[in-house]
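Ligand-bound model needed. 2'-deoxycytidine-5'-monophosphate.
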Amino acid sequence: MANLVITIDGPAASGKSTIARLLAEKLGASFLDTGAMYRAVTLAAIEAGVDMSDEGKLLGVLQTSEFHFAVKEGKMAVCIDGLDVTEQIRRPEVTAKARHIASQARLREKLVEMQRQFASTEKKIVTEGRDQGTVAFADADVKFFLTADVKERARRRQAELRARGGGESLEQIQGAIEERDKSDEDRAVGPLRPARDAVVIDTTDLTKDEVLERLLRCVEEKCLKRKQK
Ligand code: DC
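Prediction:
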């Protein structure tokens, strides 16, 4: 396992990925976008035409396809069977169907295993998702939970989608985020919630730099305390 594990959990569009990337860069750490893993399995299942409620078939997709995750130019690059699908996993259809993968216990187990495997090859890692501090890395050195008002999250997501040519209305985006929040919070396995020892940060009125600054301060304080022990 890595010497330093930092987890960042939080709801959709709370800024986790951007902050995880920036924090990792500052700390000279690797980063893991675990949402990209759920998205990759979702894409593979869609392409295989598998029934999204059939856990056995979905597990089959996970076991028979070769998934590869790596940090490339500051992004989580994803390949399935040697094919680069980094852009395709962001398709709206994938976003909408990923909850099926996220709610299946055996698939989550396998993905958590892959996440731990990924971390075991790195010295320092910042990993982000929904269950990183609660399940995947319950012993992490520093845990964060980022939240933001749903309207602000919808605005941020709209800006992101527009940059990629998407034209969804703010209402549509907010509705989709609310649905995803509900399914993330209500599922029986790996539900979205802050770990008991997580530092919770509401980013609604904060800039990216301000959030990053807070996280860096916490990491420094916690690591300093650890050294003094
Ligand atoms: O963060 P994201 O939007 O890329 O996540 C994609 C999907 O994966 C979303 O439905 C939540 C789910 N997910 C999860 O259940 N657990 C994680 N650790 C990461 C993502």
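Residues 4-208 form a domain with the Rossmann fold fold (CATH 3.40.50.300).
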